[in-house]
Amino acid sequence: MGDRKSGEYPSTCRTEGCALIDSEMKLLVRLDLDPCQDYYHYVCGRWTGAKDRYSSFVNDQTSSTKAAVVAHLKRLLTTGHGPDVITASMVSVYNSCAEHLATRKSLESITDEVLNALDIRLPLWRVTTVAGLFPRLVEFSLLYKLHSVFSLSLDYPSWLLRLGTGKVGRNISATVYTLDKLYAYFETMVRALSKAPAAQGLLRELVKLDESIHEATKFAEKAETTLAVSQLKLRGVPDVLWVTSVNRVFLQRSDMSSATLVVVKDIKSIRNAFVALSESVVEVVGTYLVILVTSEVIRYEYYERYAEVQQRTEWMFVVCTELLSSLFPKHYAMLEAKALPRDSLRDSRRRLLEEAKKHLTAYLNDSRALDIPTKERVIEQVRQIGIVSFQPDPVQDVSEDHFNVSDSYIVNLFISKRNEAMEPATNESLRRRHWRSLARMQWRGSFSYVSSFGGIVVACQNLVPIPLFASTISRDVFGYTLVLSRFVRELLVALPPAVTNADDVCPFVGDSRLATFDEHLRVELLRDVKAAVVAYRAYRKRKKYWDRVAAGGHVSFDRNFFQAFCVQFCSHPVLEQKPFTLRMRDRCQVSVRSLPEFWKAYDCPDAERSRWASRQCSLTNRTLRS
């Protein structure tokens, strides 16, 4: 992006309208500011003016966001594109953020600007999903997990939202709430929102009240463990702080009469206060409830899931897609088109897919639960699956004169699918299909098998490839195995559920916890399990990777992979047994004996040895925490 030390930016403008963009880039370099970090802080925290807003996220999330954006811009600027629409969009956003920070605009003015830019309307919000509003306001993709766990439908003509069990949950981590408890919260919230008279007022209250809740939770980064919303308590955050904060929020509501004002005296009475408010101040109660629920989800997802995975695999995320698409509706199609991978990354994807197909085919051939005709049929189906990539062809021929063509291409093949999934459906079956499309193409990321395309969709929805194939495959064996498991799982999605279900060599098939689940959830879980097993066996067969690891590293890798596998298995929502405990790995009691591949790593005894010694070969809580 130029040499900051010299204060120079190489001008590559060749069009009349590029002069202003070039000037902005020069100013950006001369100011020697960090636009990515300032932009992240603005979107995620500085609406309320709190400098330590979401401070627990700064170290990890900001650094990965910065790295991804900078790498993306540098790649574009060094491959002959020049400061085109993408650069213009980025610079405009960055300069706007710098302006906000410099002028210290009021909370109300910033809120109005953001709401207007995002074009948020309460009826549209009702039609899509309650959780869908929050990523647009605080820009945390982690909140999308709520949509995967629970599905919301609109009940015409009463305009009431109805919450149901999510049938689109795909490889999601467990929710810390039981369905009936979360339903009670959401039911109260939905009743309130369905009668809310002022959309803008409600959304403005959301931002204001979020600051008050933040005051009660800002010490969360120091807590090793958080608890469920039903307990409303954090380790290191005393009860009195919760009570004081909630009372302050209630007292700030000047339109409440003394008859409706509820004074919270202890933790247990907070929920009762919300219930009382729902009967008297319907336009604001939903705000309180959703903030509390989603703030816990943020902490859970960050501390227990993403921090571990991101640290191990160096995956990079940019979580500003939705904001950019709303701020730049005319140019966003081209923004995605140019950001789509067009170099050797495509070859890496195809090579990895072929490896996944090869190892899955071998796994199916070894299965004693499938007859020969079935094996031949499903293996042929696997061979036919390819990669579907959305991008103009050829990319190098795209110029400013062809913006309309490029926009149409991307909008028709990618963005319209996402928008279509968010539109209200005319019947229940169509609605379910739309929710599945939305969950798979928008929130799931780069890997999604889509039957209508007959292949695994690889699309850049967050400005950079997720994960970065070139780096993870070449440098990180652990990352290679995890990415391979993602491909294997999408291949299994393409096959009939019976193929996943009927497998006598898959571990945990006889797990007693599976007996109480319906067929759909059982297949979802076993796909995750089988994908992990196939990926691990694929790693063991790649001799060249073994040569790069020292003898002691084998055991270290095996243990790491088994722990990651255990956490993935035990954190699946269908296995959620203790909703009041967050740390999934403390709960995971899967025996190492279920997977003989890991016996050596844990010094497991041979089968003929004593029964007492075999009982010691299990993954205890202490081992998982180590």
From TrEMBL:
Give the record's GO CC terms.
plasma membrane
The record ties this protein, via PANTHER family, to: GH26575P-RELATED, ZINC METALLOPROTEASE FAMILY M13 NEPRILYSIN-RELATED
Q: Name a biological process GO annotation.
A: protein processing
Q: Which molecular function terms from Gene Ontology are attached?
A: metalloendopeptidase activity
Family, as annotated: Belongs to the peptidase M13 family.
User: What are the Peptidase M13 N-terminal domain coordinates in residue numbering?
Assistant: 35-385
Check the record and name the PROSITE patterns matching this protein: NEPRILYSIN (PS51885)
Spell out the protein name for this chain. Answer: Peptidase M13 N-terminal domain-containing protein
Pfam families named among the record's database cross-references: Peptidase_M13_N
